[in-house]
Amino acid sequence: MGEQSGVQSVNHESRTLSAEDVAELNRRFQGATPEAVLRWAIDTFGSKLALASSFGAEDMVVIDMLSKIEPPITIFTLDTGRLHEETYDVMERTRERYKVAIQSYFPGRDAVEALERERGFYSFRQSVEERKFCCYVRKVEPLGRALKNADAWITGLRREQAATRTGIGVVEIDASHGSILKINPLTDWTEPQVWAYIREHEVPYNALHDQGFPSIGCSPCTRAIKPGEDVRAGRWWWESPVTKECGLHLDSKHGDHGKSS
Ligand code: SF4
After folding, report:
1. Rg of the chain over CA atoms, in angstroms?
2. Cα–Cα distance for residue pair 140/119, rounded to 1 Å
3. Of ligand 1's atoms, which has the minimum distance to the CA of residue 139?
């Protein structure tokens, strides 16, 4: 890793970063603001950096923060074909507010046609395997295409969001996508922090959040939660909490052997 204007950076050969490099970055970012992490990411990766957004509350915070940092980076989303109307609405409001282009990635036409022809329109309710297959077709494969030319990507993941996310680092090696870097600037943020930021900066957000949806994915796989329920209880509610990932955020390594950064 090199040193650049007093900010330690990795070069664009991040696919070769070691677990030790990433552990060092996580130590460096302990207590850093999300804005500082984003600034570093833009300085380091430039046009090879992308933001993956499903336009949930956390993603909107990151988009707002990035809008105040130059130069703009690519925002992409996975349009699964099963999203809520409210999600398209917030995407459009984001385009207008921040004057940004949003790059949609659709699932492969042949794959969706085969999925619906051979397995039906609600196959994801039949088993975890069927649900993961649908997520693979509609999310995982398109994400691979979206990240094909990226050296790093940013997410709005937080540790307290899910049982599957308690060990995430600010910086991780994404082994599922050619060992590029995955950067999670809101790792340590709490839900009240997210909403305080949204209110203070008047950030647009998905209207479903006001209807009891803390976590929003595809329409048939997301429901409102009741008071006291876990924030991910409304995602694939027929499954165990430990299976509740769509495959977009698995297999990352943050170089500190499971310890919090
Ligand atoms: S969230 Fe549901 S509809 Fe969306 S890709 Fe996954 S299984 Fe399919």
Report:
1. 18
2. 18
3. 5
108-130 confidence digits (pLDDT tens): 999 999 999 999 999 999 999 99
Beta pairing partners, 171: 183
Residue-range definition of the domain harbouring residue 74: 2-253
Taking every pair of C-alpha atoms in the chain, what is the biggest distance, in angstroms? 57
Tally Cβ neighbours within 10 Å of residue 53: 23
Q: Is 128 a member of any domain? A: yes
**Predicted local distance difference test score (pLDDT) of residue 125:** 94
Instruction: Give the distance (Å) from ligand 1 centre to CA of residue 20.
Output: 35
Which CATH number does the domain housing residue 148 bear?
A: 3.40.50.620
Give, using CA atoms, the residue closest to atom 5 of ligand 1.
Answer: 135
Residue 261 domain flag: no
First to last CA, the chain: 19
Beta bridge partners of 78: 105
Q: Is residue 47 part of a domain?
A: yes
The neighbour count for residue 88, using CB atoms within 10 Å, is 13
pLDDT of 25-52, one tens digit each?
Answer: 999 999 999 999 999 999 999 999 999 9
Identify whether the C-beta of residue 23 lies closer than 8 Å to the C-beta of residue 254.
yes
- Confidence class of residue 247 from pLDDT cuts 50, 70 and 90? low
The count of domains in the chain is 1
| 259 assigned to some structural domain | no
Q: Tokens representing 214?
A: 């803390």
Ligand 1 within 6 A of CB of 143: no
The reply to whether ligand 1 has any atom less than 6 angstroms from the CB of 220 is: yes
